[in-house]
């Protein structure tokens, strides 16, 4: 009884705090009454929210004690022989699936793959190198506008502009790294946040080059085997994709082609990231993330290591931005706000810092779930924040945390009191 009385005060305080947060969002609603706008109270939502928070705060210690011994089932580990087969099966399903799915589902899957590319790029900076970047959307916007301006001013196609879009974004990452990577922690985060906002404001104000707030429209879709997937030829005497292969024109073909292109780019990004982390540069990123002073004492140059992470991460963001521009057919500064940087960072954190499969899973979750809950679009950001809070409490290491090799010294087996060294693999919860 005494413990319950001790928890009564914090529970009441939590309920009152819930009133302050929830009342303006759920308790009041604007409705049209003729020519006037009236404020309609809906206090039952606030009451229910306060009641749930109050009861939860009272019963939380008991619930924690009751669930302390509960362990979630772990994913079955695949053997080295079955892992390539499972990977091939997943890839085969990913390539075949769009031919039997609806247009809306394929379009959402294409958006998921764009965020996979962006998440893998930011994972190099945040997950591998341990550098907090809140302005990653700036490199994303650079890649998109590079393709848009190359097409608008020089008539470049998507495939010709794609390498240059990644190169320009990588150059921006390299140039940004020189003045800011001497900073650490929160200071680095604030400076990178400012960089993202500077890029967006430049896109708004450089109207002669970027089109200002209206952006650049009329961007073409990528060609397939050099053939446009349009109803009629773009140039006189040209041939379209469906005319060349003798098939009937359908708009779904372009949607499927965009999905397959995004899948190919995402696989290339995933392959390069997985190879980099096993190379000396990947080991240098891990050393920098764990202890910069120890990294410097080993003869490494932290500045060069940070620059490499920023440059490569920005390059992948540029590729994703160029593909986003050709998919949408238009780019404008409102597509590259801070909320995009927060979403990409959430994908990395939710999936597991440094975990590439986790990034893929988190991109699917954070992209598909809002699409399935469009009727709650008004409360999207609120639900989004609650999910992240629950994840940080329940599983702070992420959905699929990265596994790292550890060395275990067995002092019992070794003769003469000298321990034997045995490698082991453990899940690192960061």
Description:
- The chain starts with a helix and ends with a strand.
- The protein has 3 domains: 64 residues; 305 residues, ABC transporter involved in vitamin B12 uptake, BtuC; 31 residues, no CATH class.
- The protein has a two-stranded antiparallel ribbon. A two-stranded antiparallel sheet has the order 3-4.
- 65% of the residues lie in helices and 7% in strands.
- It has 430 residues and is mainly alpha-helical.
- The chain is globular.
- The C terminus is likely disordered.
- β1 and β2 form a beta hairpin.
- It has 16 helices and 6 strands.
- α4 runs antiparallel to α13, α5 crosses α13 and α10 packs across α11.
What's the arrangement of secondary structure elements?
Blueprint: H1 2-27, E1 28-33, E2 36-41, H2 43-66, H3 82-96, H4 103-128, H5 136-154, H6 158-180, H7 185-205, H8 207-210, E3 216-217, H9 241-245, H10 251-278, H11 280-290, H12 292-297, H13 302-328, E4 330-331, H14 338-351, H15 356-372, H16 380-394, E5 403-410, E6 420-427
Antiparallel strand pairs: 1-2, 3-4, 5-6
Helix pairs in contact: 1-2, 4-10, 4-13, 4-14, 4-15, 5-6, 5-7, 5-13, 6-13, 10-11, 10-13, 11-13, 14-15
Outline of this structure?
The protein folds into 3 domains: 2-65; 90-394, ABC transporter involved in vitamin B12 uptake, BtuC, CATH 1.10.3470; 400-430, no CATH class. It is built from 16 helices and 6 strands. The chain has a two-stranded antiparallel sheet with strand order 1-2. The chain has a two-stranded antiparallel ribbon with strand order 3-4.
């Amino acid at each position: 009884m005494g413990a319950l009385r001790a928890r009564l005060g914090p529970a009441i305080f939590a309920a009152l705090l819930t009133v302050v947060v929830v009342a303006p969002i759920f308790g009041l609603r604007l409705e049209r009454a003729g020519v006037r706008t009236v404020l309609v109270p809906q206090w039952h939502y606030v009451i229910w929210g306060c009641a749930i928070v109050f009861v939860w705060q009272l019963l939380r210690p008991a619930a924690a004690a009751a669930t302390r011994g509960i362990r979630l089932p772990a994913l079955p580990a695949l053997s080295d022989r079955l892992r390539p087969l499972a990977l091939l099966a997943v890839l085969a399903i990913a390539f075949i699936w769009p031919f039997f799915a609806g247009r809306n589902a394929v379009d959402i899957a294409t958006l998921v793959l764009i965020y996979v590319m962006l998440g893998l790029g930011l994972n190099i900076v945040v997950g591998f190198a341990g550098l907090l970047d809140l302005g990653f959307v700036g490199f994303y916007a650079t890649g998109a506008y590079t393709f848009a301006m190359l097409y608008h001013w020089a008539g470049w196609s998507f495939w010709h502009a794609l390498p240059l879009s990644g190169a320009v974004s990588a150059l921006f990452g390299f140039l940004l790294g020189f003045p800011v990577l001497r900073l650490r922690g929160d200071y680095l985060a604030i400076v990178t946040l400012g960089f993202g906002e500077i890029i967006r404001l430049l896109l708004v104000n450089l109207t002669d080059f970027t089109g200002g707030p209206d952006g650049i429209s009329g961007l073409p879709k990528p060609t397939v085997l050099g053939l446009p997937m349009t109803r009629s030829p773009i140039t006189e005497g040209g041939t379209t994709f469906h005319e060349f292969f003798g098939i009937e024109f359908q708009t779904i073909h372009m949607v499927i082609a965009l999905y397959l292109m995004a899948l190919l780019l995402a696989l290339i990004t995933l392959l390069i990231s997985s190879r980099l982390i096993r190379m000396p540069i990947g080991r240098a990123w891990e050393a920098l993330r764990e202890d910069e002073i120890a990294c410097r004492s080993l003869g490494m140059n932290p500045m060069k290591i940070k620059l490499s992470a920023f440059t490569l991460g920005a390059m992948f963001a540029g590729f994703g931005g160029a593909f986003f521009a050709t998919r949408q057919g238009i780019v404008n500064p409102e597509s590259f706000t801070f909320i995009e940087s927060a979403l990409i960072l959430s994908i990395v954190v939710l999936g597991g810092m440094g975990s590439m499969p986790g990034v893929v899973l988190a991109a699917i979750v954070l992209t598909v779930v809002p699409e399935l809950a469009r009727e709650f679009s008004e409360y999207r950001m609120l639900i989004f924040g609650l999910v992240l809070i629950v994840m940080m409490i329940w599983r702070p290491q992420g959905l699929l945390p990265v596994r790292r090799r550890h060395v275990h010294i067995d002092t019992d087996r070794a003769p003469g009191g000298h321990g034997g060294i045995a490698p082991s693999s453990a899940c690192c919860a960061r």
